[in-house]
Amino acid sequence: QVQLVESGGGLVQAGGSLRLSCVASGSIFSVNGMGWYRQAPGKQREYVGHVTNGGYTKYADSVLGRFTISRDSAKNTVYLQMNSLKPEDTAVYYCQAFNSRGDYWGQGTQVTVSS
To answer: What pLDDT is stored for residue 100 in this prediction?
Structure first.
């Protein structure tokens, strides 16, 4: 099992920045990569981006160039740096870890961007 705890959400004005953190614990040796998803009210959860153990990153088109995923392996932590935030970025952001057995999810952290 892998446990994930997100933090760093909050309220920010459009154009501002936030950095989310996700700390992993448990069977982290089995994790192949970690990612971020988000879910806005009334919408399905959508992919934001991910980073593999090899350092490969990929992003959704909607956040490309504005969001950056990084990791600190020593701290078992993955970050989501969000710049140039827009009101449409408002959502609950979830951290995800994946391995050969499936996916693990955090509890989510709310990000609200005011116009």
So the answer is: 87
The answer to whether 47 and 114 have CB atoms below 8 angstroms apart is: no
CA-atom Rg of the chain in angstroms: 13
pLDDT tens-digit map of 38-71: 999 999 999 999 999 999 999 999 999 999 999 9
Q: Taking every pair of C-alpha atoms in the chain, what is the biggest distance, in angstroms? A: 42
Residue 74 tokens read as 């020593």
Quote the mean pLDDT of the chain: 95
Partners of 110 in the beta sheet? 92
Structural contact between residues 47 and 63, judged by C-beta atoms closer than 8 angstroms: no
Size of the chain in residues: 115
Contact call for residues 19 and 79 (beta carbons, < 8 A): yes
Question: 105 - beta bridge partners?
Answer: 96
